[in-house]
């Protein structure tokens, strides 16, 4: 079901977390299809190696790398400012980057680290790129979530608290926020040519997702991943299907897993709550007057 022969010649795609794991596989797949691909992550060395590898394997030289640290709102703004100044269009935004097992602390922006890396950074990135996505329509936003979102809980008065949530709870909350953000995006941009859908990569082998974990919990998690995980190449195909399949052009507000529409979180259909999430998120990332197109 993931196979599609569709080309992306003349299209521009951004893949966050594109230097390794499923982000790398997704970027490589999009490159095979002829897209200009911008891979983004915080490690310059990994980015250069990934860019060179994608160029070599696909024969597509139109691959560029840009530093993006979702744990820094300044880094996100620098990335979007440069992208808007240098790119004429943006057809696909793959919000893939995320992390598990981060330390329970505040960032330099005063936000919970897990929430910022897994949600707030991506919210700001997407918000600032939306005018470019809209002017490039039809365009697609593809947001990575996880099964943990089904046990997530969002309390806008306490979502940046330290010492309140376990690692699993913090991850679940951040993934739920991503899912509801995607649902609200779909509603706000209905009939604009900009679509927003989520994907769950399930459990994936040979990625860096467990790098922040330590000790026995990491060893047990790694064993579980090795036994039941799917190849990262398969997830790359799943993302590419959402990005390139012509049948997906007008589909928005859906949740996908294994290239099939999947059951979404019930809160994704609660419009009042997703609107609250949108407004609260804008406040958290300090959207300025100059940045605020949503007025």
Automatic annotation (TrEMBL):
Keyword Oxidoreductase: yes or no? Answer: yes
Gene3D superfamilies recorded = NAD(P)-binding Rossmann-like Domain
- Keyword annotations of the record: Oxidoreductase
Which InterPro entries does UniProt cross-reference here?
A: NAD(P)-bd_dom_sf, SDR_fam
Is Oxidoreductase one of the keywords? yes
Domain of life, per the record? Answer: Eukaryota
Can you name one GO molecular function term for this protein?
oxidoreductase activity
- Write down the Pfam families for this protein, in alphabetical order: adh_short (PF00106)
The protein's name is Retinol dehydrogenase 13
The organism is Papilio xuthus (Asian swallowtail butterfly)
